[in-house]
Amino acid sequence: MEERVIEREFGELALNMGPQHPSTHGVFRMELHLRGETVVRVIPHIGYLHRGVEKLSETLDYDMLPPIYERDDYLSPTANSFAFVLAVEKLAGIEVPKRASYLRVMVAELQRVASHLVWLGTFGLDLGGALGGGSTLFLYCFRERERILDLMEALTGTRFHTNMNQVGGVRYDVYSGFDQDISQTVSYLKERIGEYKVMLENNPVFLERTKGVGVVSKELAKEVGASGPVLRGSGVVYDIRKNKPYSDYSDFEFRIPVGNDGDAYDRYRVRIEEMFESLSIINQAAGGLPEGPIHSRKPVKSPLLLKPPKGEAYAQVESPRGELGIFIVSDGSSKPYRVKVRSPSFSNIALIPYILPGHLVADAVAILGSLDPVFGDVDR
Amino acid sequence: MISAETVAHGIMLLGAILGVVTYLTWVERKFAGRLQSRVGPYLVGRPHGWLQPIADALKLFIKEDITPSKSDGFLFNLAPVWVVIASLIGFAFLPLTASWVLVNIDLGLLYFSATGSLIVIGIFMAGWASNNKYALLSALRSAAQVVAYEIPLLLSLLVPAVLASSLNFLDIARAQEGYWFILFPVVGQVSFLTFLLAALAEGNRIPFDLSEAESELVAGFSVEYSGMKFAYFYLAEYVHLLAISLLVSILFFGGPLGPFFPGGVWIAIKTIMVFLGVLWIRWSFLRVRIDQLMMLNWKVLTPLTLANLLLAGLWVSLKM
What we know:
Structural class of chain A: alpha+beta
Number of strands of chain B: 0
CATH architecture of chain A: Orthogonal Bundle
Number of domains of chain A: 1
Helix content of chain A: 40-55%
CATH class of chain A: Mainly Alpha
Low-confidence stretches of chain A: none
Strand order of the largest sheet of chain A: 1-2-3
Largest sheet of chain A: 3 strands, antiparallel
Strand content of chain B: under 5%
Number of helices of chain B: 11
CATH superfamily of chain A: Cytochrome-c3 Hydrogenase, chain B
Oligomer: heterodimer
Largest sheet of chain B: none
Radius of gyration of chain B: 20 Å
Strand content of chain A: 5-15%
C-alpha cells in the first residue's frame, strides 16, 4: 500500500483529527499542523458521509423525495423536507392552506429547539468530555429533547423523521388535546432551558473556554457565506424567517438574537436565545391555528404522480444551522431533472481554516463544536 | 529488617485496597448515574448491579492484549505496572486507624508525596512508548501539569504539618484533638482548597484531566492500551484518588477522631465523603485549557500557598 506523507514545515507535528474521533461530530477529518500545541495550519477534509442524495433525487418521484431529504441533516429533518416541498410548490404553483403552513412552522420550530438542545449537549461533551461534567449537560439536554420527540410521536406517529411535510400540505392534523400537550411541553422546556442558561453563564470554566475563542468577524462570515447562528453571532442581523418570510412566518412575532464579538460564547448565546424565540413561535402557532384543510391535494398515502411544468425554482428556509436552500430544475416529468442543495453546514465549516490557526488543540474542538456542523448536511 | 508480620499485613492491605477500589468504580457509576438522572449499572447482579465491577474486570481480563508493532515494547509494557505500583506505595504510610499504619516513620508525609509523584513517570513512559501522536501530546501535557502542580500541592500539604509540628501522619491526626485543621481560621480553609485543586490537577481529574481529555486527545496516554494493561491505568487512577481522599481526611478532617465509633470507622466515613465530593466535582465541571491551567498554577495557587504557609508558620512561631 502506498503511504501518503503529509507535507509539513520543519518543527511541525501533523495530527490527523478524525475521521474517527470523538469530537468531530460525525465523520470529518481535520489535518492539524501543530507547533507545540498551537495550531498553525488546518486543512479540512470532507466527503466521508456523501450519500448522493442529489443524484438519487433524479430517479425518484417528487412525492417520494421529502422523506429522503429528511435524512440529509439528521438533527433537524423537517427543515430539509420543508425547503424541498417549498421549492416544488413554487415550481408547480401549488397554494398551501394556511393551517398547513402553521403546522409546518410549528413542527419546524419544535425541531429547531430539539436540534439546538442536541447542539448544547454535544458542545458540553466537546468542552467537558464524555466522562465528566460535559456528559451531565449532554444527558440533561437529551432528557428535555425527549419531551419534544414524545410530542412528535403523538402528533405524527414517528419520533424523529416525522414525514410531516408533503408537497401541497402536511400529512397529519393535530389530535384533540394537543393544545394542552404542547403548552405543557413549551412551559417545561422554557423553565429547563432557563436553568441551563443560568448554570452555564455563571460557570467560570465555561466562560473561560468560550469567550474570545474562535472569533469570526462580520466580513469573514459574509465572505465565506456563513449563515444561521454563526452569522448572527458575528452581529449580522440576517434570518430568512424575517428577511424573506416563507410559510406565513410574517404572522408571528419574534426577535432575532445577535451577538457582538463573534466568538464561541456569542454563538452559544444566539442559539440559547433562539430556543426561547422558537418556543414563543410555537405557542403563537398553536394558539392561532386557523381552521381549514391541511392539504391542497388529497392527503396521499401512496405517491400520486405530480408533474410540475418545465422550469426551475429555488426555495430557502432557516434551518437550525442557517440558510438551507434547495434548487430544482424540472423537465416536465414526474422526477426532478436536477436538484442542488445549498447546505448551511457546508458553508459554515468553510470558516475553519481561517479561525483555527493560533488556537490550541483544545480550542479546535470547541470551535468546531460551536459551528454546529452536521456532516450529513455537509456531504449530503 | 522487614518482619514477616509486616509482609503479611502488607499483603492484606493490598487486597483490601484493590477490593475497595473495585467497588469504588461501582460507587462512582451509581453516583454519576443519579447525578445525571439515570440509574447507572442495574442489570448485572440484582439489585443495583452489584456484580458490575466484577463483570468489567472480567471483560478487560479476557480482552486481547495488544502491543503496537511500532511501539517501544519494553517501556510500553512497563508503564502500566509502574503506574500501579507508584500509586499503591503511598498507602504504606497512611494510617487506617488511630494507631495502625503499615510503615510508621517520622517522614510519612514526605514519603507519601515523593511516591505519589512517581506516577507521572509511568504516564510519560506510556505516552512516549505508544508512538502515537495523541499519546505524545497527552504525555507532554501531563508532565508539564504534574511538575507544575507539585509545588502548590506540597506547599499546601505543609500547612497541616506546620500546625502539628510533625510530618508523621499519626501525630498530625492526634494534633487535631481540639479542632480539625479545616476549622482553623483562614489558613486551614485556604490550605484545604488549594490542596484540593492541586490534587485534582496532579491526579488528572476533571476539571484538570487534560492528559486524558477524551474529547480532544481521544484517550490521551492510554489510547493504545487494551485489556488488562488499560485496566491498570484505570486502577492506578482510582487508587491514587482513594489515597488522596484518605490523605485529606487525615490532614484536614481529623482522621480517626470522632465520637462513638472507633478511629478506623471515622477514617472510612470521612474518606468516602471526600471521595464523593471529588466525584461531584468531576461530574459537574467542564475541562479547562492547558494555558488556563498553567495560569491558575503559577499566578494564583503558587503565590497563595506560599503566603498561606508563611501565615501558618508565623502563627505557630508566635504561639511558641
